[in-house]
Amino acid sequence: MLDKIVSADTTLAEFSHIFDSEETCSKALFTAKWPEGFRCPRCGYSHAYTIISRRLPLYECRDCRHQTSLISNTVIEGSRTSLMKWFLAFFLIARTDQGTNAVELSSILGVTYKTAWLILTKIRFVMSQADEQAPLSGIVQINSAFYGRPYNPTVLRHPQEQPLLVGSSVNQQGESIYIKMKKISVAHMRDKSVLRSGTEAFYEQHIDNDDTTHVTCVTARFSFTRFKGLLQTAKKASKWINDTFHGLGSKHLQGYLDEFCYRLNLTLTKSPIFHHLTSLCANSPSITYAKLISQKL
Ligand SMILES: [Zn+2]
Description:
Layout: H1 2-5, H2 12-18, H3 22-33, E1 48-51, E2 58-61, E3 67-69, H4 83-93, H5 102-109, H6 113-132, E4 136-147, E5 162-170, E6 176-183, E7 189-190, E8 193-194, H7 196-206, E9 207-218, H8 228-245, H9 250-268, H10 273-282, H11 289-294
Parallel strand pairs: 4-9
Antiparallel strand pairs: 1-2, 2-3, 4-5, 5-6, 7-8
Bound molecules: zinc ion.
């Protein structure tokens, strides 16, 4: 339903006109959470009583009597922000090649910067989690790259340069079908060279060893065999991060790279991003503020 209503061409005004009430958003969230109709999270039964005595409906399973709310086990759980604002955030972050930042989001949603930042960070967290569940497979191509200073020809790494590995599953025609961009820990670097331990760590964490036929990894910067498409993608990611967030330190970089790849991968498979994001957020448990700030993003 959502992919029919919201497309890549939908404007902010059109979107706000469609999702104009808590009720509309509540229905859309229900469909995203339970596309086949209500399903009890405890026993799997498909019928429930709806209790409407609060801000959002509560569902009581007709079999085991377990009560569940519309937002439990979603990214919205624990938030006092309205569904309309959350849906608007989904829409803004789903915009191809654009996304949004906390300053813009707080102004459009009419919430504090902290609330906007938290919404974005929670959404980014579920994107990163989803990416962890999708290792590269089949034919895999990897190239090292740098995020940070636009041009630094020396062999020594500038402190603001973040080494990355950009990996892709490719089809028989050599076209990328799924891309990941991951920071390389400085422990795996010697000046600007990636140590073998760095590529091994990437293989370990991001490649499905049982389902991979061929891996080619290029870490020499001026090699003739380097994957120019992947380097181009890393450049685009750097530009988007610089334009949208005006550059940033290493702490949050991985979350931004994952967000970039999330939209890119859906674009590669021509999947509707808003629809996918809403479904992902409706089926991924939230993370608390305390956990968010204590973990490495
Ligand atoms: Zn039940």
